[in-house]
Design brief:
Chain lengths: ~50, ~375
């Protein structure tokens, strides 16, 4: 039903999808840690 | 006399259909208020470029090619990526990251709700699209017009018209697309889950350091994403620094308005009948819907997965707000929560996930640029 070229492209797309989703989660985890770190080092000082 | 009628005589049915498409977009923009800032200029531009011998786009006269104004805008603003990047400055100036500091865990939904991008990219390859075209179609799922335009400009210029129309149309249709998907994947009890509010305030230094740090980290790991994320964060730095209020307001208002106007009408330069009236356009528009559905599903299912390990459960609907359509998606989730339990206030949490989605969509765009060769 699908040509070999289509299957190859699909396979590439699936590989990129796996890498992409992993990459986004890694970035978001890093940003999560950055937020935690910045917030810990520079907490909001309450007036008075 | 013959010269005056040449336009009428040369009008093809394909051009007539495109004029109708333009008219429909204008109707949706005005009557339904579907992303009017973009759909109206795109719709009008579609009419402009489909008038026979329109001087708005390139025409050959006496063997010499005469450049049209819209072609000039397209080359100068879109092919150079200037317009989408300027829009990112404006968006950055509009984003308030402080909700994320109150509950940073919700940032992860900004990752999970990008699932539709990759699912659609893979699905698009089955319709015979090349990898780069499939990636450009998948990025409709970023629910972020400028990112879609940015990636499509790099990978599939010819598909820019249908991709932009799909991206902006579905962003406007978030209140119609998301609720059925969420209801399908969640039980009534799950939709009633209440979440604790975080009344914490965030220091100005933290809000200033965040865009700078994110730009450096993102740039070091994915240099190809640095323009996208950098311009977004630059806009945010202008907002948060506290000494550039005039520039911040200009970015949020005048810059955003002017560039959006030019962006919309320039995209229309690609919407000539011969390019737009293809089977591929219908497939792209259908796949765009698939992308939004699977984004929503990805966010909701990830929230349900997290709930397996969390003591304080997350309302799984919050996951759906991890798409970039801000603040529409957050409002949809809040309203759905209130339909189930009028004392359930999910807005703040949904806004946090939604802000996470804005970062996630830009990162997804950058990663696609880096990974697709």
């Amino acid at each position: 039903m699908f040509t070999q070229e289509t299957i190859n492209t699909l396979w590439q797309a699936l590989t990129i999808s796996l890498q992409g989703m992993t990459g986004i989660f890694v970035f978001m985890l890093m940003f999560f840690l950055i937020i935690k770190l910045i917030d810990k080092i520079f907490p909001k000082k309450e007036n008075g | 006399m013959g010269d005056l009628l040449i336009g009428f005589m040369s009008f093809t049915w394909q051009q007539l259909v495109m004029v109708a498409v333009g008219g429909t977009l204008i109707y949706l923009a005005i009557r339904k208020e579907y992303e009017p800032t973009l759909l109206l200029p795109i719709g009008f531009g579609a009419i402009l470029v489909n008038i026979p011998f329109s001087a708005a786009i390139n025409q050959i006269s006496g063997g010499v090619e005469i450049e049209g104004a819209l072609t000039t805008f397209f080359k100068a603003g879109i092919l150079t990526e200037v317009f989408p990047l300027l829009i990112f400055i404006a968006i950055g100036a509009m984003i308030d990251f402080s909700p994320l500091f109150k509950n940073p865990l919700l940032l992860l939904f900004g990752a999970a709700a990008q699932f539709g991008i990759f699912f659609t990219m893979s699905a698009a390859t089955l319709f015979g699209f090349s990898l780069k075209e499939a990636a450009s179609i998948g990025i409709i799922g970023a629910a972020d017009g400028p990112t879609s335009i940015y990636v499509a400009t790099r990978f599939a210029k010819d598909l820019l018209g249908p991709i932009s129309v799909a991206a902006y149309s579905y962003m406007a249709l978030v209140p119609i697309i998301q609720p059925p998907v969420i209801r399908l994947l969640t039980s009534k009890n799950e939709r009633r889950i209440r979440m604790e509010s975080h009344a914490k305030t965030v220091s100005k230094t933290a809000l200033i350091l965040f865009p700078i740090t994110v730009t450096i980290i993102a740039g070091l790991f994915a240099p190809s994403a640095v323009a996208l994320i950098g311009f977004l964060m630059f806009g945010n730095l202008i907002r948060e620094c506290g000494v550039l209020n005039k520039l911040s307001l200009a970015a949020q208002n005048e810059l955003a308005s002017l560039v959006t106007l030019l962006l919309g009408i320039s995209i229309a330069a690609t919407m000539t009948a011969d390019r737009f009236l293809q089977t591929s356009t219908l497939i792209i528009i259908s796949l765009g819907l698939v992308a939004f559905i699977f984004d929503t599903a990805g966010g909701v299912l990830f929230a349900k997965f997290l709930n397996l390990f969390l003591k304080k459960k997350i309302n799984p609907m919050i996951g759906a707000a991890g798409i970039s359509a801000f603040p529409m998606s957050a409002r949809v989730i809040h309203n759905m929560g209130q339909e189930e339990d009028q004392f359930n206030f999910l807005l703040m949490h949904a806004v946090s996930a939604n802000v996470g989605g804005q970062i996630g969509s830009v990162i997804a765009g950058g990663l696609i640029l880096a990974l697709v060769k």
